Amino acid sequence: MNVNTCVFCKDFPCQDVKHSSYIVPDIEIDPEKIFIMMISEAAPQELGDYYYSRPQALFAQTTLQVFEEAGVKANSIQDLLGMGIYLTTAVKCGKTGYAIETSTLESCSHLLERELALFPNVQAYLLMGDVAIKTFNLMAKRLGRGRVIPSGPTYKIRRGSYLYQGKRVFPSYLQAGPSFFIEKGKHKVMADDIAAVLNLL
User: Is the pTM of this model over 0.90?
Assistant: First the structure.
């Protein structure tokens, strides 16, 4: 299965994102072998920085670093896929400003819903950053399941036990992109969250 052929935006209604950096994972994958989904905020400004674009991609490098800090030996995103860990973004286009409008998150939550439905054996979702958390909550509320992650700062809520369709959901901090190098104090928290998810398997 190629995710790109199953999840796509038809009309690009959102006005506060960079449509030229729209991207959905264009990879061949066995969906039944995916057990963890890591969802970060938005596509990078440059498509070459996306998880699956190239080995030196910024998103790939920062993500591999935090997995290493969690005790996971992986040299590439392909290694993570081989472990059953799938990486994607909640918003499929790049940001144009610091924040993203709620209407955009609502629109993208439909794509996220379709993407989640592709992976029947997922046991846990890692929501990396506020945008991923908000988009996931909007999806769940639209589907009549209510808010999955409560409001509040991540450091207060991250140790709670949250479920979506019987699967664990872990809120954490953003690991993809330049902010990873700026907010070094959050590295251990992210690594601890990843380790907690891996302990489920």
Answer: yes
- CATH label of the domain that carries residue 88: 3.40.470.10
159-165 long-range Cβ contacts below 8 angstroms, 24+ apart? 164/125, 164/136, 164/140
Of the candidates 179, 199, 201, the residue with the CA atom closest to the CA atom of residue 65 = 179
How many distinct structural domains can be found in the chain? 1
Q: How far apart are CA 194 and CA 96, in angstroms?
A: 29
Range(s) of the domain holding residue 185 = 3-7+14-198
Which tens digit of pLDDT belongs to each residue from 27-68? 999 999 999 999 999 999 999 999 999 989 999 999 999 999
Q: If pLDDT is split at 50, 70 and 90, which confidence band does 8 have?
A: very high
- Output the six-digit token pair for 136: 């996931």
158-190 residue pLDDT tens: 989 999 999 999 999 999 988 888 778 899 999
